[in-house]
Amino acid sequence: MNQAPEVHNSNSEIKSLETRIRELKLQVEFQDAKYKQSLADRKLAMHLVEKLQEEVEYYYLLSEQKQKIIESLEELQAKSTEVIYNYVKK
Question: What pTM value is reported for the model?
Answer without folding.
Answer: 0.56
